[in-house]
């Protein structure tokens, strides 16, 4: 190792905790990602992967995506201060990388413009929501309220609790029959469990709009009840709009200098195992106990009350274009895995523009204990899936608004596959 490389490494490690911005830092300052780059790194063997894991720990890097499938690339956010020495370290280890985003803040600025809808248009249709831009929580909640008021025969807005910062947690119930919802099979869909994954509330609200406002889709609610929660993490979602676009967790007080729990490590099945951190400052912090967060506790209570009727459970995430199956806590398979796989592959075949890979969560991506999908499977919901939406890494979490509608429209035929299966299931 050269003296220059050694000096650069020492310097980088010395300033690691002082370098802007880390996702876990407790700050109310507006975070800028100017000069930050997204690198796609491809270790070709076990030694390379271990070397990359050490770099991630040493520099406290934000890993956006990692995959065990295909070429096993890892997408990592690289602060400007670390770029010179990391280039040298990767070259020294003969590990190739590609700069996918040259300046993350520029992409954020281009994709986070204020929604500009004329007052006349809002007045005419009653809401600001559209699917050509990302919306604040107030726009989403106003749209849900509008639907409940305008379509009371099929839409019920259910308040299942409050977030840590006091925001309501809303689930939309959609069903067109007069019979009791307890006599019909149901589908659960949620988005926004990770705050920075803005495409997920957009897709969830698009599903709601299609089910409620498009007459041609009325049959999808005739024999089914839909429970759709567009934003499971409203505090984090608002924080990404106001302070830190790449914030992932909740906003509860995890430790003296760190906030937030990873909701998708906080559910009560195999809680605290592989892929979940006990470090309150880590992005995958599991929380102090299973269901320690108000949001996960409220969601689990609501779902348990409907679990005998919920036949399909879909939790929306980004990114990578995967439909992934239990179990997530380790590379293990439920006894009915082949049935789950067949339905997922059928749904995946309906995508045209954005092709989705299908398989076991821990095998395709990485172990993640305490996940909502594993918990849902553990309480008896048969068909449980996590869906990692588009794209495959060109933009990642900072997906431009121009891709919202294409991703939504591409998904809807696949959603019908899940709906058809659920509608045929009895107790």
UniProtKB/TrEMBL annotation:
The annotated active site, in chain numbering, is 388
List the PROSITE patterns: CARBOXYPEPT_ZN_1, PEPTIDASE_M14
From the UniProt annotation, give the residues forming the signal peptide. Answer: 1-19
Entry keyword annotation includes Disulfide bond: yes
Q: Which Pfam families match?
A: Peptidase_M14, Propep_M14
UniProt keyword list: Carboxypeptidase, Disulfide bond, Hydrolase, Metal-binding, Metalloprotease, Protease, Signal, Zinc
User: What are the residue boundaries of the Peptidase M14 domain, all occurrences included?
Assistant: 133-422
Spell out the SUPFAM superfamilies in the cross-references.
Answer: Protease propeptides/inhibitors, Zn-dependent exopeptidases
Q: Which cofactor does it need?
A: Zn(2+)
Domain of life, per the record? Answer: Eukaryota
| Family the entry assigns | Belongs to the peptidase M14 family.
Name under which the protein is recorded: Peptidase M14 domain-containing protein
| Species | Daphnia magna
Ranked from the top, the taxonomy reads: Eukaryota, Metazoa, Ecdysozoa, Arthropoda, Crustacea
